Amino acid sequence: MVTLPDSLRDAFKEPMGPVTTDADELLAAAAETREEYGAPDAPIVAVGDVVTYHLREAGRVPDVALVDGKTEREAVRTKISDALAAGDEKRVHVENPAATLTVALLERLVDALTDSDPVTIEVDGEEDLAALPAIIAAPDGSSVVYGQPGEGMVRVAVTPEARERARELFEGLDGDVDGAFDALGQSG
To answer: What's the Cα-to-Cα distance from 168 to each of 8, 113, 130, 135, 163, rounded to whole Å?
Structure first.
């Protein structure tokens, strides 16, 4: 569907929000964003196994989690994989190659965002780029959390401004960008 061109790799290395190692602080900021937007049910989307683990350990099962069993291209520690496997949330599987966003992943993401119960999307391949479509598709007041290698967790408050920045980056991807927007239920 769409892939990350080499020309955009550096842009994706810059965090799109504040970086923290404190999950409680992150969850408090997410609650403030929900309150600010009058969206008490706005979801928290976690992209990555380690981020998902830390949120769960802090007492918050993400509304949507995308995991691939890896962190920085290495298998996650057994403690993390076991903890994530112990969750009883709905699970869906999708194939998504590295540096790619497939229609299947985008459609599962949209479905998960509209599900009233927590959903874990288990990715065979890589979920790294999924934060971008999550920011585009999630309602205002949501939080999208992803890992910043070697630094911590990045929380992006979903606002019209954050969504516009994500759309600009998304439009720079190679492939059928209009089709990808369609899969997200968005116009390109």
So the answer is: 11, 21, 15, 12, 9
Of 72, 16, 70, 73, nearest to 45 (Cα)?
A: 16
For 132, phi and psi rounded to 5 degrees? Answer: -60, -55
Sign of CA dihedral 128, 132, 135, 138: negative
Question: Which residues have a Cβ under 8 Å from the Cβ of 184 and sit 6 or more positions away?
Answer: 106, 109, 110, 133, 136, 137
Quote the CA–CA distance of 151 and 82 in Å, as a whole number: 23
Q: Answer for the pair 68, 53: CB distance below 8 angstroms, yes or no.
A: no
Q: What is the pLDDT along the chain (188 residues), one digit of tens a residue?
A: 898 888 878 777 889 999 999 999 999 999 999 999 999 999 999 999 999 999 999 999 999 999 988 876 677 788 888 888 888 899 999 999 989 999 999 999 999 999 999 999 999 998 989 999 999 999 999 999 999 988 999 999 999 999 999 999 999 999 999 999 999 998 76
* Gap between the Cα atoms of 188 and 184, Å rounded: 10
At 104 the three-state DSSP class reads: helix
The structure tokens 């504040």 sit at: 18
* Whole-number Å distance between alpha carbons of 188 and 180: 8
Q: In terms of C-beta density within 10 A (0-12 exposed, 13-18 middle, 19 or more buried), how is residue 130 classed?
A: buried
